[in-house]
Amino acid sequence: MLEIRDSAIVRVSAVREEIRAGRFVGQTSTIAPGILQGNVAIVPKSYADDFKRFCDLNPKPCPLIAVAAPGDPYLRELGDIDIRTDVPSYHVFRGGERVAEVADIGDIWTEDLVTFIMGCSFSFEEALCQAGLTSRHVEMGCNVPMYVTNSQANPAGPFSSEIVVTMRPYTPERAIEVIKLTARFPRNHGAPIYFGNPDKLGIRDINKPDFGDSVEIKEGEIPVFWACGVTPQFAIARAKPPIAITHKPGCMLVTDRLSREFMI
Amino acid sequence: MLEIRDSAIVRVSAVREEIRAGRFVGQTSTIAPGILQGNVAIVPKSYADDFKRFCDLNPKPCPLIAVAAPGDPYLRELGDIDIRTDVPSYHVFRGGERVAEVADIGDIWTEDLVTFIMGCSFSFEEALCQAGLTSRHVEMGCNVPMYVTNSQANPAGPFSSEIVVTMRPYTPERAIEVIKLTARFPRNHGAPIYFGNPDKLGIRDINKPDFGDSVEIKEGEIPVFWACGVTPQFAIARAKPPIAITHKPGCMLVTDRLSREFMI
User: Fold this and answer.
1) What ipTM is given for this predicted complex?
2) Chain B residues within an 8 Å CB radius of A194
3) What was the pLDDT predicted at B9?
């Protein structure tokens, strides 16, 4: 275990160096096998308690991995990480509107900002592949399809949102195995929240996702839905804080921790 | 834990005394909360290796808990158990045909018989109730509906059978929780093997189970199917050994072990 950890960390160091230097600004989905990656949300201190409560009330879309102290750009419990430089690409929001995409937030960082890291599905995607249950979008080499549902997350202060879901199609037999496996990743959205009829979630056309790419649902397969880390980004847009920063979707924070450390 | 175990064992001792004396010959579903109960199959020594292999090849319908040495009526690893007296009611088969229902097999026991004990769903039924996911047949106070499927168990020597399944209806959201919970009971049939369209299992009319009672499937619910301990009884009937003995369905062996000792 230590040996696995050490060799993974050596690989991660090289990746982090590239990201930190601004030379790598792309998707992180396959660049660090076995390593925990995270969704990033940074909000002003006056919004932090409510955002923390929003995450605690909605652990499936917003599974908290770490919260930094106000103004602290370092996330020591996740490794050698400076949140100002160590995400490949950031989205900057002002008043709930996205105003910039940048590779570094050193120039806009202030003592007033609080960083939240949430687990993401990359951890269980790897496990699905290893178990012969590879997601369709991974097979197809495209983005996972995402849908805005009619199901409301539990609100907290100014933070509220429809729950956004990802979809992976499986036969019922394989869905049972996938439910069992993803349930072991509670800090990475965990087990699905629904399967079957998309109407029940308010999804009008399963072939027209709101984000990501459409994937084929084969004969005998049913759509299976997981809570998605885009949900907190919706909540931030709704809350309209004067400033907020997130990772660019797909361009995650790569930590120094192993995914399996967060499995049950 | 020790205290729970001790108080459960005290209760079980009283139950066993009644069963051993032939005063209790009925269903065992609620008589020993927290205690592991088992399906029983007893076959001649010359059939035992094949039957063992049949169980090993089909762990979902036939999850082995214990196998006794040939001729040994005691199951020490499961507690103070004499298999000749400690099952409330037995079915006796000769040449694959059921020829008797008895409360004691002391008079037909021989040195040539080998006892197999397999886990049963009573263990997870209790856990489902405690989790607010009570099975419909338990709510209705009737037997679980069972169906003979068109899916074949893996054969071993003379032992072969269609897989028999039990059915419990749930909404998709609740089915996900039920899959997660029953997966923790691999020695009690574990997670379901299928959900959704009964046609795929060759079930013509879900309202007409082959055994047990029909239960209501409410609007928004889907049928969820588990492998069933009746499967090995089918295999024994097909193999036609000169003698075989099983428990009468529902009248299980009550052990001295806790269900939770077999959970993962």
Assistant:
1) 0.82
2) 172-173, 176
3) 63
